[in-house]
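Bench notes, bay 3.
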Amino acid sequence: MAKARPESGFGANAGRESLPETATVVLDAAGIERATRRIAHEILESDPELDDLCLVAIESGGIPVGELIAGHLLELRSREIRLGALDVTLYRDDVIAHGRRPIPRPTRMPFGVGGKRVVLIDDVIFTGRTIRAAMDAAIDFGRPAAIQVATLIDRGHRELPIRVDFVGKNIPTARSQKVVLRRRPEGELEVVVQ
């Protein structure tokens, strides 16, 4: 069982998006801390025992969010929480359709998900295609008892019937805008819209 701590190193390079400084900050480090703590509390409310819980963060933006949620759960329950990192590149239907040659990132799943309650974690949910791909990828590690979805930001514009169970913040956006979790030079995370 992997220890779930924000300093675990899964997301060492995650959240390193660079956008112009003119991007609008919609969630600063303190806001991210509050949102991930609230998500952790909601996960606990839905299943206080946590016996069969597996957190599965989606490469790459979901990893720092997953680490924060896992860290809050560790604080709240003083027990290790299974945390994995899942790359969904090869499961995406829109990558190949656009003629791009995907470069997979490492998947780190030190546990099976058969019979477990899986919470897929991503930084920003948009069309739902990444979550659909993550569900397919997670099932390669077993047949979960249930799959739930947690996200720091839900920006709407679904193309698939994907429902989010735990949301940090809903942000109305135009389809043309970018919503990105990025790491500032001093190391703090923030969510920006451009």
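Next record in the batch:
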Amino acid sequence: MVPAAPTSAGLAAFGGGAIIGTLGGLIGLGGAEFRLPLLIGPFRFHALEAVILNKAMSLVVVATALPFRARSVPFDVLVSHWSIVANLLAGSLFGAWFGAGYATRLKSSSLYRVIAVLLVGISLVLLLGHGADEQAQPLLTGPAQVITGIGAGLVIGVVASILGVAGGELLIPTLVLLFGADIKLAGSLSLAVSLPTVFVGFTRYSRDRSFSVLGRNLRFVVTMAAGSIAGAFVGGRLLGVVPHGLLLPLLSAILLASAVKVWRHR
């Protein structure tokens, strides 16, 4: 990261986190998918360092968001849907461990390319996978649903670890389409799956020497995470004010532009 005066660096970290958190909050997400390009671009962290920092902030944001949502979706409701959480975790925990290990073995130039491709994928999910607002019938039932849930969790865990995100942008459409959850319940179930998934990926990254970036930038992480939480709260209050028909294409375009910059990064 480029050195800066403590005050200006703190303001930039908090402000950047707040903007990202607000963007995510507008669509019911934490915004980590937008935070990663910010860490790689303006803040100039190397790819793996940016992923590790993003993963640390995702862990803080998810841990904070879950109790915040308890008023709208009580914990006993989440417990009553434990089988869905367990189904996805059966794949996502392994995926998170594998994804983090894979990222640490890649050359930096290759990791930039992988991140860019995944950002393009996330932008497409935002456009195509977040249109459902009402509860639907489950896409599958019985053993087919369980097997598909494990497979989906595996993919989500890998993607979440490589990008350092919580995975809500993939989990919510999966919960709505595969399990027939309504959008409000899907948001909380997503956090219940994300928290242990993020923790497993974070634990795997802690075994790599690049993890030392966290100790060197702890104040930065705390400040940006605080900004992300504040922004997510503001974005959540504005949820529905900006039509999704306008917002989702805009956010998707931001991710596509970010993917191009990350792909070209040296």
